[in-house]
Write a structure and sequence with these properties.
The chain is of the alpha/beta class. Helix content is 46%, strand content 17%. The protein has a 6-stranded mixed sheet with strand order 2-3-1-4-5-6, sandwiched between helices. A hairpin with a 3-residue loop joins strand 5 and strand 6.
């Protein structure tokens, strides 16, 4: 059994990076290996869209950030350590995360990949959507690159990760480092 150190607060492993960089993949791998819950921003938004399709008003689609941070705050407040991933925009999300630092030790894993845009486009092409929707998403991706390609400006430990053919440092190395915090 691995010895875990810490200050008694839950650990929030917050994975950031550009769309297609491998945030969700890394989150799932860490969640499985560390046996921690994984909160995925894309799945929260999918749940809101599903509720909208069931007849909820359009305003339910604007609740993604409130839903995500509300879930994080609730789980951390009751002592649950967890892993969360999402495309976090510099200059917009720091205040939300600083509030979470009162509840947990936050570690930011920032993932970079030179293949991120290509991976994102391939994933989006596999979805059943119009060419106009794909073009709109690719245009949006270009617009946000400057605010998502760098780590957030936080006062927590940040671990830089590259993901070309595999994660570097490896998942095992990341887990060892997280256990030592």
């Amino acid at each position: 059994m691995t010895t875990v150190t810490g200050d008694g607060r839950p650990l929030l492993v917050l994975i950031s990076g550009s769309p297609g960089s491998g945030k969700s993949t890394l989150g799932r791998l860490l969640s499985k290996e560390m046996r921690l819950p994984h909160l995925n921003r894309d799945e929260i938004w999918a749940g809101l869209r599903f509720t909208h399709q069931r007849g909820a008003s359009d305003d339910v689609l604007a609740r993604g950030i409130v839903a995500e941070y509300g879930a994080l705050e609730h789980l951390l407040a009751v002592g649950v350590s967890l892993i969360a991933d999402g495309t976090l925009h510099r200059g917009e999300f720091e205040a939300n995360i600083r509030r979470l630092q009162d509840l947990a030790q936050v570690v930011n894993l920032h993932v970079r990949s030179s293949q991120a845009s290509q991976r994102f486009e391939e994933r989006e092409r596999a979805l059943d959507q119009s060419a106009e929707d794909l073009d709109r998403k690719m245009h949006k991706l270009k617009e946000i690159q400057d605010v998502v390609s760098e780590p957030l400006d936080l006062t927590c430990q940040t671990i830089e990760i590259t993901n070309e053919d595999d994660f570097e440092p490896s998942v095992e190395q990341i887990i060892r480092e997280l256990h030592q915090m």
